[in-house]
Design goal:
Elements lengths: L1 H4 L3 H5 L12 H6 L13 H13 L4 H14 L1 H10 L1 H8 L3 H7 L1 H4 L6 E4 L6 H6 L8 E5 L16 H14 L6 E7 L5 H4 L15 H17 L4 E4 L4 H11 L5 E3 H21 L8 E4 L3 H16 L4 H5 L2 E4 L14 H4 L11 H8 L3 E4 L9 H10 L4 E4 L11 H6 L6 E4 L6 E3 L2 E3 L2 E2 L6 H11 L6 H13 L3 H5 L10 H18 L11 H6 L12
Parallel strand pairs: 1-3, 2-3, 2-4, 4-5, 6-7, 6-8, 8-9, 9-10, 10-13
Antiparallel strand pairs: 11-12
């Protein structure tokens, strides 16, 4: 690769894939005309990591730290990933949730250097030509958004590019997928965010969001262009609005290798957490009720996967669905309502309508409340206390991102359940000390799932992503929770172990791809070794 590109001097220093900064050796400096362009002292990568970490920790805010890390990624990708891998628990919240949400809100104001491909309505008919401008030709993972529902922050239009960029950083850091195989894409069809439309520094097209046939045609052209140019690529739909998210997944999941992380990835993470929580409650999934606050793509995606898992345990679909209850912005989702979107109808059960959350808790008496509503604080003191009154170990999942949208804090969950809550959140919370006991909150982060799924798809060259693969990923994640983790109150492994966890998930997903006849790559005799051999290691190599 290096010889083929034949870069010298400043051009080499400006290539983030090949640049090694002050780690270029004396011989490399001579051969590639770098002498004088770098300080005279040669540093190891470890020394550069120490320098970068010191600079990072001097920053006054997480947003400034985010800007620093993105600049480092633009300058030296191996150093960026070495730093992140060495300090995962500290830096994942910076390069992704919760800080990436703030970064997207400020994207037009902190914009430094473009990453990825921007496609707008004006590019209709030329999408393949735009994708050809991408410098790497063997793309295996594409993360695409239209920016309509960025985390819990709403419509951020083209400023949502921070999400595909961040997700693909985690594909590499947590899953080990080579960054040259990754492509972030934002499809700019406008925004209905009036604040952005009036902002002279907004980076997207200055018109309201376009829907209907024109939108659908652009998405179709994009999918077909990816298929033509990158036929082995996995397409991940990310942060689309509810209406488009469900129908685009339904339209393309059986035609191309695609999945929606907000629907399927979130579902797998939560199902894994429920499996792990079962080691505390000692109750089967189907013998408990689940009340979801939020009936959008995340909530119904979780319930759908939960139902599939119960069916695998011998329960009927009807009985499994009866375990799952929903509350949307108007109140309890019940069969007497005539204002329900299609994806809610299958979870509309016979019951009187209720609008008050505490009344819903009283009526449903759930073992678990799962927050995907974006309504901060909806899990009130009264709700948490009531959950603890009829559950020995109440399951409290406050999953909305960023932290400002969380349904409750970790401290509230533990305090108002007398330390008995099995708690998980979407964004990280610090450990909680209560009456001399230390609780380590679990973060139900999709980073536990999608990097491993992607690695398994890349390794097997699967032509599709199936429900069986998503279920296998969830089970593999749950199996990685150790007794030590449980003793600390964790229902997910520490992020520090994420690469090992992702490998196990990739192995489970790839095995499903082969078992289902969907893998294009020949099945190796040692699949785990085959996957390990493909894992990107961010270490410098000598070019001469």
């Amino acid at each position: 690769m290096f010889e083929r590109r034949n870069l010298r001097g400043v051009q080499l220093l400006h290539d983030p894939i090949l640049n090694k900064g002050t780690s270029f050796t004396e011989k490399e400096r001579d051969v590639f005309r770098l002498r004088g362009l770098l300080p005279p002292r040669v540093n190891s990568q470890e020394q550069q990591v120490a320098r970068a970490l010191e600079s990072l920790r001097r920053k006054d805010s997480d947003l400034e730290r985010y800007i620093f890390l993105i600049a480092l990624q633009d300058r030296d990708e191996k150093l960026f990933y070495r730093l992140v891998l060495d300090h995962l628990e500290e830096l994942v919240p910076i390069i992704y949730t919760p800080t990436v949400g703030r970064a997207c809100q400020e994207y037009g104001h902190i914009f430094r250097r473009p990453r990825g491909i921007f496609i707008s309505l004006e590019d209709a008919g030329e999408v393949a030509s735009l994708l050809c401008n991408w410098p790497y030709k063997d793309v295996r993972v594409v993360v695409v958004t239209d920016g309509e529902r960025i985390l819990g922050l709403g419509d951020l239009g083209a400023d949502g590019m921070g999400i595909p960029v961040g997700k693909l950083s985690l594909y590499t850091a947590c899953g080990g997928i080579d960054p040259q195989l990754c492509l972030p894409v934002t499809i700019d069809v406008g925004t209905n965010n009036e604040e952005l439309l009036s902002d002279p520094l907004y980076i997207g097209r200055g018109h309201h969001r376009v829907r209907g046939p024109i939108y659908d045609a652009l998405i179709k052209e994009f999918i077909e262009a990816v298929q033509g140019l990158f036929p082995r690529a996995l397409i991940q739909f990310e942060d689309f609005g509810n209406k488009n998210a469900f129908r685009l997944l339904a339209e393309y999941r059986n035609k191309v290798c695609a999945f929606n992380d907000d629907i399927q990835g979130t579902a797998a993470v939560v199902l894994a957490g429920l499996h792990a929580a079962g080691r505390f409650t000692r109750k089967p999934l189907a013998e408990q009720r689940y009340l979801f606050f939020g009936a959008g793509e995340a909530g119904t995606g979780i319930a759908d996967l939960l139902v599939e898992e119960m069916k695998n345990g011998g329960w009927s679909e009807k009985a499994a669905r009866r375990c799952c209850w929903f509350a949307d912005s108007k109140g309890l989702v019940v069969s007497s309502r005539h204002d329900l979107a299609e994806h809610k109808v299958r979870y509309a059960h016979p019951h009187s309508f209720l609008a008050d959350p505490l009344c819903m808790i009283e009526a449903v008496r759930p073992a678990a409340i799962i927050g995907v509503s974006g309504q901060p604080g909806i899990f009130s003191e009264r709700i948490l206390k009531r959950m603890a009154e009829f559950n020995e170990r109440p399951i409290i999942f406050a999953l909305s991102n960023p932290t400002s949208k969380s349904e409750c804090t970790a401290e509230a969950a533990y305090r108002f359940t007398e330390g008995r809550a099995i708690f998980a959140s979407g964004s990280p919370f610090d450990p909680v000390v209560l009456d001399g006991r230390k609780f380590v909150p679990s973060q139900g982060n999709n980073a536990y799932i999608f990097p491993g799924i992607g690695l398994g798809i890349v390794a097997s060259e699967s032509r599709r992503v199936t429900d069986r693969m998503i279920l296998a990923a969830a089970r593999a994640l749950a199996a990685e929770v150790t007794e030590t983790d449980l003793a600390e109150g964790r229902i997910y492994p520490p992020l520090a172990r994420i690469r090992g966890v992702s490998l196990k998930i990739a192995l489970a997903v790839a095995n499903e791809a082969y078992d289902q006849g969907l893998a294009a790559a020949p099945r190796p005799s040692d699949l785990e070794s085959h996957i390990r051999a493909q894992v990107f290691v961010p270490a410098y190599t000598n070019y001469v």
